[in-house]
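User: quick one, fold this
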Amino acid sequence: MNRFSRIGITVVTLAGLSLGTACTEISSSPPPATQAAHASWTTSYNNLEEVLKDTTLVAIGFATGQEKIASLSDGTGPKDTTLTTLRVTRSFGEDVEQVQVRSSDGFEVEEAVQYVVGQEYLVFLKPFEFEKGKPTGTFIAVGQLAAYAVNGEGAMRVTSRDSLVRRTSLTSLLESAAKVR
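Assistant:
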């Protein structure tokens, strides 16, 4: 049985032109159950060893294309998503030729990865899931942070929110990536 509460609102106009009262009923029943998505978008890491614990795939490759996905069309939340395709030149953990990596739009550069088509990246990835244990076929950079832009033999993090190393050698990253099985 639903219970209702009455709330009265008195309206007074300063010029004295109208006085009135309004009354409405508000249900005190609990709201319907909701479903939630599971993601690690806000996790911060202190070092690559912590990142590796959440990583299932490390991919090195070039961003070749992007697709914008409105948040309301796939249920990811209040921010739109960019789905970036990486043509993979080397991978650890899985043998893949291409991956699609999600990133949330509307965040500051230091808060979430924003990929640029044509740029080469080394990314620490995990499957993106709306529901825990049910991968969508796309990936997300671990914590939305573990992505490096590759430039020759060097690499630079594309975010800066946590204490992961900002600039490093590609060789150092490859040594860490080789630990992903």
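User: anything notable?
Assistant: The helical segments are 48-54, 71-74, 170-177.
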